[in-house]
From TrEMBL:
This is ATP-dependent DNA helicase. Belongs to the helicase family. Its cofactor is Mg(2+). InterPro entries: DNA_helicase_pif1-like_DEAD, P-loop_NTPase, Pif1-like_2B_dom, PIF1_helicase.
Length: 460
């Protein structure tokens, strides 16, 4: 299998403000165009998700919209690509039964069967969180459906001949499972046969500081040298009160995130405006909207710290993760489009929050749309403002975003990959503040270090 990689350390790309595909990214696009199944990996911020977005367009040109199914291991990642979770696509419930039972279940479930039979291409993002056993079971289901319903010879083809596009970094968050039974997707029996092309992207777009990229690579692999440990220890803050309000607190648990955000909002003592999401569609897809980043109910007030959850204007740095402060609310009059009316009504008038972003611009924020799609069908839609409160966020919600400044406690409670995800959200070391740091919290899963096939993990 061709592996494209620069067989070396991640390097920094200067193309931070415009999207110009790198040679590596272009090679992946070419492989997809020639109908190969590809696996895209690479460190955080190397443009995996951005590339997958482009690949989805390419796949739709090749196979038609109805033949391309876009999935991800988590609801947040799935919603970001307007797709669905891998579980909901597959129709295998919790997938605890063996492959044969799961295949019979799919064959007798009209809707699931239709999805599999229509699938010409399957995209799976955030593969690090997909369990290896599930990966094998789904491969069997794919062959079983294609072989029994379309063409018997397809039972012999890996994934029944479906073109796979899989993306993720195994050094980030691992599958959710009991520690000892956890199996990564790359440990699946079918993994090696599943791809004709593998790319490990090396140009880092998120960080612009060479030294920090080098330290991050060490953290990714759980290897920190004493000098780097010292550099990180210098980021320890003796007193949390020294922090300015622009620093986002990062917590492993959602309860802590909600507690901090609600308290800060309450402490401002300002009148709040509540934006209720406007959802359409049917179950079970509608419920999937709740797993995405856009909240059902968003309470805001003047002075509230907020984070943008979509890419609005890359040149102005108004990207997913950009933070700012609400400076007021803009009355947008009565004859606004219906979609604005649906969520922005306040005492009969329509109002939008105005945000002064830390990067400079001050703009009124209009609603965005999130969709759950299945092939070419949009099954559920949510309209909501693309904002969340930003005094605090969770590690899971921070996946895929770029922050200027963050504050976190790395002394405990962090599992494999969590420290790396946390550290890799900021653009440079100056943006990182720690309330605690224990070098032993920087750990890569033992299965990812040492004897494994390095090309699977980082192309080196
Ligand atoms: N070719 C490119 N040119 C310019 N910017 C790019 C390019 N590819 C990606 N980017 C930008 O780099 C940033 C990181 O990209 P992306 O989120 O896709 O990385 P990732 O590898 O998926 O990161 P993570 O593993 O942390 O989720 C984004 O702001 C994205 O728009």
């Amino acid at each position: 299998m061709p592996v494209i990689s620069n067989a070396g350390k991640p390097r920094i790309s200067s193309r931070v403000n415009e999207v110009k595909w790198t040679d590596q990214q272009l090679q992946v696009i070419e492989a997809v165009k020639s109908c190969q199944s590809v696996f895209i990996t690479g460190s955080a911020g190397t443009g995996k998700t951005k590339l997958v977005g482009e690949i989805i367009k390419v796949l739709r040109n090749i196979h038609g919209k109805q033949g391309v199914f876009v999935t991800a291991s988590t609801g947040i990642a799935a919603c970001a690509l307007s797709g669905q979770t891998l579980h909901s696509f597959a129709g295998v419930g919790r997938a605890e039964a063996d492959s044969g039972v799961l295949l019979s279940r799919v064959l007798s479930d009209k809707r699931a069967l239709k999805r599999w039979m229509n699938a010409k291409a399957l995209v799976i993002d955030e593969i690090s969180m997909v369990d290896g056993e599930l990966f094998d079971k789904l491969e069997y289901v794919a062959r079983g459906v294609m072989g029994s319903k379309l063409d018997a010879s397809r039972f012999e083809l890996v994934w029944g001949g479906i073109q796979l596009v899989v993306s993720g970094d195994f050094f980030q968050l691992p599958p959710v499972a009991k520690l000892n039974s956890r199996k990564f997707a790359f440990e699946a029996d079918c993994w090696d046969h599943s791809f004709q092309f593998q790319a490990s992207l090396h140009s880092v777009f998120r960080q612009s500081d060479v030294e920090y990229v080098r330290i991050l690579e060490g953290i990714r692999k759980g290897e920190l040298n004493p000098e780097d440990e010292k550099l990180l220890e210098q980021r320890l803050l003796a007193n949390e009160d020294e922090l300015d309000h622009k620093v986002v607190r990062l917590f492993p648990r959602n309860e802590d995130v909600d507690r901090v955000n609600e308290k800060r909002l309450h402490d401002l003592g300002e009148e709040t405006v509540v934006y209720e999401a406007f959802d359409t569609g049917t179950e079970p897809w509608k419920s999937q909207l709740n797993q995405g980043i856009a909240p059902t109910s968003l309470k805001l007030c003047e002075g509230a710290r907020v984070m943008l959850t979509v890419n609005r204007d890359v040149k102005e740095k108004l990207v997913n993760g950009a933070t700012g402060t609400i400076t007021g609310f803009v009355n947008v009059g009565k004859d606004r489009k219906d979609q604005v009316k649906k969520i922005c009504r306040c005492d009969g008038s329509l109002i939008l929050p105005r945000v002064k972003f830390d990067s400079g611009p001050e703009i009124a924020i209009k609603p965005s749309k999130w969709e759950v799609s299945e092939g070419d069908e949009i099954k559920a839609k949510r309209l909501q403002l693309p904002l969340v409160l930003a005094w605090a966020t969770s590690i899971h919600k921070s996946q895929g975003i770029t922050l200027d400044k963050l504050y976190t406690d790395l002394s405990k409670a962090f599992g494999y990959g969590m420290s790396y995800v946390a550290f890799s959200r900021v653009r440079n070391l100056d943006g990182l503040y720690l309330s605690g740091f224990n070098p032993s919290s920087v750990k890569a899963h033992p299965k990812l270090v040492g004897s494994l096939n390095r090309s699977v993990l980082d192309g080196s």
